[in-house]
Amino acid sequence: MAEKFKVRMRELDPSERVNSFEEVALGYTKEEAIAEAKRCLQCKHKPCVSGCPVGIDIPGFIKALREDDIEKSTRILKDANNLPAICGRVCPQEKQCELACVVGKIPGSEPVAIGRLERFVADQNISLETAVKPSVNKRVAVIGAGPAGLTAAADLAKEGFSVTVFEAFHTAGGVLVYGIPEFRLPKEIVAKEVEFVKSLGVEFRFNQIIGRTIPFEEIKNEYDAVFIGIGAGAPRFMGIPGSNHNNIFSSSEYLTRTNLMKAYLFPLYDTPVKIKDRVAVIGAGNVTMDAARTVKRLGAKEVHVVYRRSEEEMPARIEEYHHAVEEGIIFHWLTLPVEYIGDINNNVTGMKCVKMTLGEPDDSGRRRPIQIEGSEFVMEVDMVIEAIGQTPNAILKAGFPAVRLNKWGSIDADEASGRVDEGIYAGGDIVTGSATVIEAMGAGKRSARAIKSYLLRKG
Ligand code: FAD
Ligand code: SF4
Ligand code: SF4
């Protein structure tokens, strides 16, 4: 009979971590990892594997770990997942592999901590000779170095294709470097996994905005196939009256300045960022939690998360919400800002809000928020961060004229293969809208398989 509960993972104390960008979760020791690995029942039908979009042999890597064969465990992980240290940290495991785990179905039991075990094995940094097949003399361009692009690039390189990644920024990782903060995903970890992709022979060309610095047509003509993984990096805005007051930001801008441009290390890095006393962050997803916890660490005295639905509908990972609560973030449920108020200098001083109630489920399956008449009130704030989601960048429409878009401005691609047109494939957030790291990686993997069979068929 397995132990009922996961082995706890040590964390930095909330009082210590609110002033620091050090990683909050500290990982397992070897003894802890082996004790957790022993909770796995080694199910023959492996239901957990079908919950993993990249199809890791989960019982296989756990078995090798509990036999203390870290090299074998690493090999099994890396066979399916090019970025295991990243996934072990940020995958929504509770909605993926762990949701399907048999142990978690036993009343009163928690599933095996698959993500934490994956993180432990990946963090042992065992370097392996990865088999790369002989060159097949075909060139593939990958546009965007986020999780989708990195996965497609690595899988194609392993198959002997010559792969070049074009990335708009000066560094690889996409949201992993410009969105998710250091205290959840240290950039050193991302850099190590990108190094692994490079070690497979993938070439990176940074500071290249395809559709601007290089026309898409040029790439299409020069390469045998193209994978587009450019994400959904443009922020959505509330668009309410008063939005042009000073000190109202999008989470995309605020997090990019802090993470990618290292404002959290100011003045070591010359990136200024606004920090005020009483900050409202609007939304309730992972991005909201990241923005709220970031501005708190930077020195805001009070941080208020304002969400129009209830705690039950909150899309953020429950673990991240708990961390935010422990760090003193204040939550206002069923509350919708309807107008920003400012002073004579045009600085925001407050938000006019209304209280909400929940009606019938809407298209997203969540109960629709409805305004309560006469419930208006003003919340005093001196800074606002809007974190209500991202959409594909408008540059896409102009920069990729050959690519079909759907009504949401995303690329219209075949779900199974990512095929858009002959030799053109796409995957990740640019197809699905903002989703998750592992879903983007799953899409990159499926397209890599489709590109391989397309190019081998074409000869
Ligand atoms: P991206 O990661 O967006 O990468 C796209 C890349 O393409 C970028 O590097 C971009 O610079 C580049 N690019 C764009 N246009 C061009 C162009 N024209 N030419 C060349 N390059 C271009 N998911 C989770 O699973 N867990 C989490 O905890 C989590 N937290 C998140 C926190 C934040 C703040 C955000 C914003 C997202 C979070 N997500 C999380 C979502 C997740 O990060 C994304 O779903 C995932 O990164 C999508 O991967 P992608 O490769 O499709 O796109
Ligand atoms: Fe689970 Fe994500 Fe790891 Fe797959 S990659 S096993 S879904 S934590
Ligand atoms: Fe182990 Fe759970 Fe997978 Fe069964 S379902 S093999 S217990 S991780």
TrEMBL record:
Q: Which residues form the FAD/NAD(P)-binding domain?
A: 139-444
The record ties this protein, via InterPro entries, to: DPD_II, FAD/NAD-bd_sf, FAD/NAD-binding_dom, Helical_ferredxn, SudA-like
Q: What is the lineage of its organism?
A: Bacteria, Thermotogati, Thermotogota, Thermotogae, Kosmotogales
Q: Which GO terms describe its molecular function?
A: iron-sulfur cluster binding; oxidoreductase activity
| Pfam families documented for this protein | Fer4_20, Pyr_redox_2
Species whose genome carries this gene:
Mesotoga prima MesG1.Ag.4.2
Q: In which domain of life is the source organism classified?
A: Bacteria
Q: What is this protein called?
A: NADPH-dependent glutamate synthase, homotetrameric
Which segments constitute the Dihydroprymidine dehydrogenase domain? 18-126
